Amino acid sequence: MPEDFSLRDNLPVDWRSGQFVGRVMTKDGPSPVLVSNGMAYDMARVAPTVSHLIDSLPVDPADGLALGALDALDLPLLSPVDLQCVKACGVTFALSAIERVIEERARGDAAAAAGIRTRLEERVGGSIRAVVPGSPEAAALKQALIEDGLWSQYLEVAIGPDAEVFTKSPLLSTVGAGADIGVRSDSTWNNPEPEIVLIVDSRGNPVGATLGNDVNLRDFEGRSALLLGKAKDNNASCALGPLIRLFGDGFTMDDVRAADVALTIDGPEGYRLEGVSNMTQISRDPLDLVRQTLSEHQYPDGFALFLGTLFAPVQDRDEPGRGFTHKVGDVVAISTPKLGRLVNRVVTSKAATPWTFGVGALMANLAARGLLAARAEEMTA
């Protein structure tokens, strides 16, 4: 954990007026927390999991256990999701589409990327930014790129009718704000992916949003798209937080659509990288991405959906032309005013705290605390 991390310094600018959901580690085990008017409440007796709490909204915070002011909370903060599936959409911005094609053409070799980037941007940069995915214009652009020998599976999901939607992380494997985040020890070209993440209930309704880091291994995915699982799903490779902000007065889907998501990376050698991903440039509307995720699938515990990122770091770090890659000790901060700041320190996935608390362990813990009986009665009523 970054040594100077504190929840107080990473809250949304208007945390005293918004309504939020999160998870904390109590002496008895993990508990969902509801934040209302700046005060935090342990809601485990009302809803034993965040998934259940989300499905139970609206709830009266007075039915929970008062924990005091949010900025003075002294319980460890966890990832704000638990039983939700963690899904992600890729290549939802024009620049990320170009960068994925570069990874593919370079076969994961960072040194070969610069020349390919120049050629692709000259040929498709303007066109791909202007085209609507799935439109007749997109189909015409596809045909032209095929004729030029520049077509790619990544451009298919960038401008074709079907979005890329994949499973990012197993249940309960995500890490929260302030935790170490993991990169495979055998990766030599990788980067963070700063994103807004929608939280969707079991009925398919988006109920709020949080920040996420969809860590990406550019060398693995660049060698083959079939290595997406290894590129995306490793120990501690998915961070969410600090809290889920619920939609309502002062925060709506339009705030998501208009958000600027800032990224800073501070390296142990004094290196600093800054960037911004502007959600107004997303190629597919967030609600369309939710619809495509739900098209032929059910999520009885709800799901978290990464919306993709505009940001693909190309700023050289060590050698000219080799671009950016992480080093152990990097501190990554992702922020936007209404969702706060998600801060994580980079370690290798092997060195990160092992993931040992799975669904079985959670159910055993909740049963031992007497929190499942009421839930079972509710589900069988």
Write the layout of secondary structure elements.
Blueprint: E1 19-25, E2 30-36, E3 39-42, H1 50-56, E4 65-69, E5 77-78, E6 85-90, H2 94-106, H3 113-130, H4 136-147, H5 153-159, E7 164-169, E8 180-183, E9 190-191, E10 194-200, E11 206-214, E12 216-217, H6 218-223, H7 228-232, E13 238-246, H8 253-258, E14 260-266, E15 272-278, H9 286-294, E16 303-306, E17 331-336, E18 340-348, H10 359-368, H11 373-380
Parallel strand pairs: 6-16, 8-18
Antiparallel strand pairs: 1-2, 1-5, 1-13, 2-3, 3-4, 6-7, 9-12, 10-11, 10-16, 11-13, 14-15, 14-17, 17-18
Fold and architecture overview:
This protein is α+β, with helices and mostly antiparallel strands and 381 residues long. It has helices at residues 50-56, 94-106, 113-130, 136-147, 153-159, 218-223, 228-232, 253-258, 286-294, 359-368, 373-380, and strands spanning 19-25, 30-36, 39-42, 65-69, 77-78, 85-90, 164-169, 180-183, 190-191, 194-200, 206-214, 216-217, 238-246, 260-266, 272-278, 303-306, 331-336, 340-348. The chain contains eleven helices and 18 strands. The strands form three sheets. Strands 1, 2, 3, 4, 5, 6, 7, 10, 11, 13 and 16 form an eleven-stranded mixed β-sheet that branches. Helix 2 (94-106) packs antiparallel against helix 3. The mean pLDDT is 90.
